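Input.
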Amino acid sequence: MFEKWFRFPEWFSEWNANNPTDYYGPVIVFGALGAGLIGLAALVVLGQPFATDSLQTGPRGTGMSRPEFVRSVTQPDPDIEEIVSDEPFIPEGGEALARDIYENVPVLGELTEDNFLRLMNAITLWVSPDEGCAYCHGDGDVETYGDDSLYTKVVSRRMIEMTRNINENWDDHVSANGEVGVTCFTCHRGEPVPSGIWYRVAPVTNATSGWSANQNLATEISQSTSLPSDALEKYLADFETIAVHDLESRVPGVPGRDVPSIQDTERTYALMNHFANSLGVNCVFCHNSRAFYDGAEVTPQWSIASLGIAMVQELNTEFLIPLGDELPANRLGPVHADAPKLACNTCHKGYQRPLQGANVIADWPELRTGEAPVYDRAR
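Output.
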């Protein structure tokens, strides 16, 4: 008998055959419970891989917040590693200025030669690292760098003025939460033509004009939705009023002229969709979900975004649209041959703050203002 016990596998099989029972169920149950306990223990020891954090966007107690996965919050924008840091040369006084050394320097001519060349090198890295100085100055010797025959040089000069304008006059938007500023890299990220620019494409179909029940054709500029494709054009270049339909029914007036039409409402949704995708946020980042129509109950971010809209409108109309006369045909829009324009995504590129709020202006006081830069001797 004891010999039979020692042959346990054979004995167990024989006993189980003579005494059939359901032991698979309990094994599965206890196995699942054991695996669950092991998983819970791993979460306690290793940390919650799907933990979330939230950013409060509205008044306390209203539940207005934007949750994000911690792993996404802590994941840096890869472009941050490409930010160029180069401390300025503090002038001692009496140095020759760039405009006195080089020909045709109407912008940045007030810089000392060392700081002028330092900034030129940075702009090359920001905008045309592969093409180098020749992208704006051609393949000639340094003596030919004063020539304006290349459109890229004319455009880059205007872009330097635009960058200074942003830092000087729109700091309440770009530096609302601490010094950040912008440089050429904020938009270009090492590319001659920044991502996130847009051209006029409307009308994509005549069937959607007026009150037609047909849907708009999906385009990239409408975020691949059937919302209107002219939202950026109407609101960020033509200064049309951003509005949706009235809450009351049968409001007197002609839709689209006296009161917002359904098309205006859809166009506003298209713009809001662009905002959300550009910043990686949702509606309640700026709006109170309980009172979308009440301007007194918006979040602080709403006012910063409003400044951003006004800033983009100015930059498009004062700096970018006029460049259409300087750009070659291959740099103009495919439908209307218009100049490229910017919007939120040109700078933000999916982040609430461009480059996640990195201070890109710290080393570049030359881009803070159109006046002679002030250098910090305490650096």
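The mean pLDDT is 86.
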